[in-house]
Amino acid sequence: MGVVGSGKSSFIQLLVDDDVNVGHDLSTGTTHVKFYGFHDERHQRNVFLIDTPGLNDATRSDAAILKEIAFTLTSLYRKKIPLAGIVYLHDIRAKRMAGSNTRSLRMLKEMCGEPAYPHVILAANMGGSPDTAARDETILRDLVSRPDWWGDMKAGGCHVTSHVNDVQSAERILQLLVNGQNNDTAFAIQREMVDENRSLEDTGAGRELEREIHEARDKLRASIGELMSEEQHATEVGLKSALARQREEMQQGLQRADEAHQAIQISLDRLSDEQGLEMLKRLEREQQENEDILAELEKDRARAQARQIQRETELSEESRQLAEQLSASGRNSSLSDTEMRNVQEKLRAVQMRRDEEKAKGEETMEELRNKKEAAEKRRLRRKQVTSVIFRVLVGTATIVAAVVAMDPSIAMGV
Questions:
Q1: How confident is the model at residue 181 (pLDDT cuts 50, 70, 90)?
Q2: Is the pLDDT of residue 36 over 70?
């Protein structure tokens, strides 16, 4: 977990042999919860890593993201599948705790609850540059020294560590997490929604988000009132129009806040039905995208093979014509010695070019075969992970019946 740009997907990419949607700016990256399989060679066990979108995602509301994360965590808990813990990543290059960081951290605390703190790792993503190591350590100490930042969580049992963005660092953090696994661990939002049958807005995380929504609505209403007053007193047409546009934007923001408030007024059963169907649609799209990639790679291979055959045919024909010219000249001496040498040189050049292009074509074909094999392996891995997701998260009879139409082997758990 972590805000957008904290390095969540990059962390997972270091561990799994799969394509992870790594974002390079605030408009890209993980937009939905996604599972990845990882084989722990040291302990010969399979581990599933769950990548989550940041709560400051520019494309989705915090309410939508909270619902999806809550659905994932409660589904695991209902199926009695233990969550080893949470790795919360923070980009140390963010020199100060911006509003999105503090909001995300408060939400993390509410989702986990103090009893689960020993199963949370707070990882400072340092990037691994020796030039900034001293500065990064200073920032990390500041994070831990503030109770409202990492201090209270560390005091409650959270592990604090650094991540230098390499495989060894990611593996070390993962081992720290899974080695401390306790099957009795339950996170606050799991207990609240499953054991206590609370609706999402009545959980600690829901109340925290509701508080933020309430604050945002109050600020927006106040700003809208001020803009309306300024608009009434404005005499210049351009200023009046600009104020009207600002007011309209804020009214849209107020509408989004109202929609977020309504979105989290949801019970566990309704949440499971709603999010289960949405996940089904996403997985169906992902499967189709993987099939499309394989089909396109096969087309690329066929086109490359056709070009290679055509080029070999052209060069073979050119070589044959030159060879016939030499043969005919040898019979009737129609070419001078100089002309004979020129034709011989041309023939050698054509034969050399044919050999070079054949080797290059074979190299291209090998590259395309490797790409297709890699894509097929990724498709099979995603299919295996998808099978697990369906059994764990999308397990109702209605949805499984729908899955059969998409891919029966997934529904059967193959």
A1: low
A2: yes
Side-chain-side CA neighbours of 368 within 13 Å: the count stands at 19
Average confidence (pLDDT) over 245-252: 88
Q: Is the pLDDT of residue 227 over 70?
A: yes
Give every CB contact of residue 56 below 8 A, 6+ residues apart in sequence.
3, 4, 62, 100, 103, 104
**pLDDT band at 404; cut points 50, 70, 90:** very low
Short-list 106, 129, 108, CA closest to 117: 108
Interval 133-162 mean pLDDT: 87
Any bridge partners for residue 86, and if so which?
Answer: 120
Q: Quick one: three-class SS letters along the chain?
A: CCCCCCCHHHHHHCCCCCCCCCCCCCCCCCCCCEEEEEEECCCCEEEEEEECCCCCCCCCCHHHHHHHHHHHHHHHHHCCCCCCCEEEEEECCCCCCCHHHHHHHHHHHHHHCHHHHHHEEEEEECCCCHHHHHHHHHHHHHHHHCHHHHHHHHHCCCEEEEECCCHHHHHHHHHHHHHCCCCCCCCHHHHHHHHCCCCHHHCHHHHHHHHHHHHHHHHHHHHHHHHHHHHHHCCCHHHHHHHHHHHHHHHHHHHHHHHHHHHCCCCHHHHHHHHHHHHHHHHHHHHHHHHHHHHHHHHHHHHHHHHHHHHHHHHHHHHHHHHHHHHHHHHHCCCCHHHHHHHHHHHHHHHHHHHHHHHHHHHHHHHHHHHHHHHHHHHHHHHHHHHHHHHHCCCCHHHHHHHHHHCHHHHCCC
Amino acid 174 reads L
This prediction has a pTM of 0.78
List b or e across 207-230, with b for residues whose CB sees 16 or more CB atoms inside 10 angstroms: ebbbebbeebbeebeebbeebeee
Structure tokens at 338: 């100089």
pLDDT class of 64 with cuts at 50, 70, 90 = very high
